[in-house]
Amino acid sequence: MNKRIYITTTIPYVNSTPHVGFALELVQADVLSRYHRLLGRPTRLQTGTDENALKNVLAAKEEGITPIELVARNAKAFRELTVALNIKLDRFIRTTECQHRAGVHWLWKRLRTGDVYRQSYRGLYCRGCEDFYLEKDLTNGLCPIHHRRPTEVAEQNYFFRLSAYQSQIEEVLETGRLRVVPDARRNEILSFVRSGLRDFSITRSTERAYGWGIEVPDDNSQIIYVWLDALTNYLSGLGYGTDEECAEFWEEDTLKIHVLGKDVWKFHAVYWPAFLLSAGLPLPDTVLIHGFLTVNGRKISKTLGNVVDPFRLVRRYGSDAVRYYLARALVPFEDGDFSTERLNHLYNADLANGLGNLVSRLTSLCGKAEYGHYGTDGAPQAPEGYHEALDEYRFDRALSALWETIGSINRDIEVTKPWEWLRDNRYELLHQKLSEWLGSLYGIGYWVQPFLPDAGKSILDALSEEKVTSGPPLFPRIR
Ligand SMILES: [Zn+2]
Q1: Which residue range(s) make up the domain with 350?
Q2: How close is the Cα of 475 to the center of ligand 1, in Å?
């Protein structure tokens, strides 16, 4: 029961400021980790920033500042986003930290002898993807994602013998030893693996990297491939390679969950397990792959000018409301849409009228009836389907389960008309019913905490008072 839990997000490139798409990933990871904490499990949540990518050097060049200035400024914005969204974080790791560099060198040296070899290489490299392409995988000669011609690269690099892990990777995916959520994604990954895994370059020349990144141990002519570097953050953030302070969070009996977007599964479900197998380290247990967020039905892009600033949303609606939208309004594994109209609608319907109204009705009734002292010890029963939904990472369904209860108490209050009992001084009847409703509200306040930590805390605080009184509205209506 008290199994340790380790949850990570991917670490974004910091060549620009964060947008609402990454907020989705942070919120999913935080909801999960707060849920496990609520169940009393030792839980660790980590995010951070990938600062060694070539595109950071290029972005800095464009701005006329040094890469160090650029990554420091943008990393700060990402860290501020975790605060704005009320993410309960244990570690924010930057890949320019000494501790991370030590972890990468440690892992490099642990890779099985013979798995790393030198070879001359010629390939097509997309700097947007930080990845090589085969001619056949290009669209009219262009990167299918960035619509740019990849650069031809010819140099001597270190290679990783991925081909040696073909059958092992297939097996861990087939048996579910590495669980992929959702299933549909697992099939996609398996078919990629079955099509044949090829060795790949895990370094680039220091010259091509403009000297930016982590050099190969004992060979400063080569910089370690940014993905090998970035993936290692899951270990270096625990102290691997230095003090191993939290090493137990990567042990076999820790449930290790990576939360990531659908564009990076190849790195997390194929490359990363192969590196770990080569190094003789435990594998992650689950990769949870979310879809992409569109804005008003269109892909988020700077050129379209539809980048939604998550800080602005939090300022207007509060962090709970933004978290609610991201967890409720989309199926976690599918693409979903963001629109201000829908946020306004959900805010008013579910938060102001639904939960907010219920809390204000009940607390005001308690105040008038001088009722309180409701016991708030221990974990109350969760609404039906709540735990099952979270076991399946269906954040939307867990919230539906909570809101069904909210709706049914609100309806019960309307039918019961407790204000008539108040008018007729029928306190015994009223207190009896209030006790029942407050019991349900306690359950809601308790189990809503992973999603809406502020509102959950307000509800539990209000209920723990000797005399429950109504406070300011949890979610003032927005026009
Ligand atoms: Zn690309």
Answers
A1: 340-463
A2: 42
